[in-house]
Each structure stands twice: as structure tokens, then as C-alpha cells.
Amino acid sequence: MIFSEAINRFSRFNRREIISLLVLIATGVIFLVHQAVISPVMDYRKRLSQAIDLRQQQTTALTGLLTEYNRIQTQSDQRKTKITRRAGGFTLFSFLNRLAGQAGVQANIATMKPSRTMIPDQVFQTSAVEIRFQAISMTQLVDWLHRIETSGEMIFIKTASISISDTVDRIDATIQAQTLEP
User: Fold this and answer.
1) Residue 64: its pLDDT value, please?
2) pTM, full prediction
3) Angle at CA 21, nearest 5°, toward 15 and 22?
């Protein structure tokens, strides 16, 4: 009954109106198919492509970080090996004192204060020595510092404080040297 009424009303239209109506219906169907099927699929593909690109960037970044980690781990292992191969009974205090004798500045040492810092769950501990020189020449200080840096014992200068001495052409210096010890 509803179908026959629709046919009767449809038959009253002329050919141009029928074509216009069919084009309108086809456009509506195409719009609905596009909105319901094609557009969501294309959005999903776009999101999927972006997710793949993001994962590739993350993978590249992780590969770089892994390379950096391996490089740092190798350096760490080399340093551990160097520290453990030091001569038996090595102490930073005695080593720095011996270098001061070699550099001819042992007489200028006012004080030497050793300290150790235990790091929980670590194989090595930090050993530091603060040395205060009085009335030393800049050349002597540089020679002593050069001997420390080139010794190969992995000793680092943590702080250095230099001031003008009361003696002409001399300086006072406070140096803190640091290393790791087993």
C-alpha cells in the first residue's frame, strides 16, 4: 500500500524531475557511504601510518641510545679494569705526596686532608685529598697538576682555588683531587 502510493506519486513527475530526484538520492547514498565507510577507513589508515612513523622514530632513537649505552659501558669497564690493576696498596694521599716530591713542591704543602665517601651498593668508593700549598710558584703548581693529569691513575682535579701569596711572585693554592678506589 505504501509502495503503490509512492509509485503513483513518482509517476506524476516528468523525466527531468525523476533524473534530479535520482541524482539527489545517489548523492545522498554516496555521502552516507563516504561518511560511514570510506572516511573512517581513511582516518584509520592515516592514524596507522602516523603510528608506524612514530614507532620508527622511536626505534631509531632507541638504537642510538643503545649505541651510546654500549659505548659508556665499555668506557666504564675499561676504567674499572684500570682502577683494579693499580699497584697494591695504592692510596691517593701517598700518590699525591710522592708527585709533590717529584715536582719539588713538597716543602710548600701546608696541609693534606684525605677523605673517603662510601657509595652504597657500589664496588668502588670515592677518595679525595685536599692539599693546601703556600708560597708556590705558578710553574711548580702547573708541573704538579700536569703530573697528576698524565699519570694514568684516573685522578681528577675537582676544585682549585688560587690566591696571591704574601711572598713576591708566589701563590697560595688549595686543590682537591679525587679518584675511585676499590
Assistant:
1) 94
2) 0.60
3) 90
- Residue recorded with cell 692510596: 91
Q: What residues have CB less than 8 Å from 40, skipping those under 6 apart?
A: none
DSSP collapsed to 3 states, the chain: CHHHHHHHHHHCCCHHHHHHHHHHHHHHHHHHHHHHHHHHHHHHHHHHHHHHHHHHHHHHHHHHHHHHHHHHHHHHHHHHHHHHCCCCCCCHHHHHHHHHHHHCCHHHEEEEEEEEECCCCCCCEEEEEEEEEEEECHHHHHHHHHHHHCCCCCCEEEEEEEEECCCCCCEEEEEEEEEEEC
pLDDT tens-digit map of 51-60 = 999 999 999 9
pLDDT digits (tens, 9 = 90+) for 11-46: 777 888 878 888 898 999 999 888 888 889 899 999
> Please, what sign has the CA dihedral across residues 133, 136, 139, 140?
negative
Q: Is the pLDDT of residue 47 over 90?
A: yes
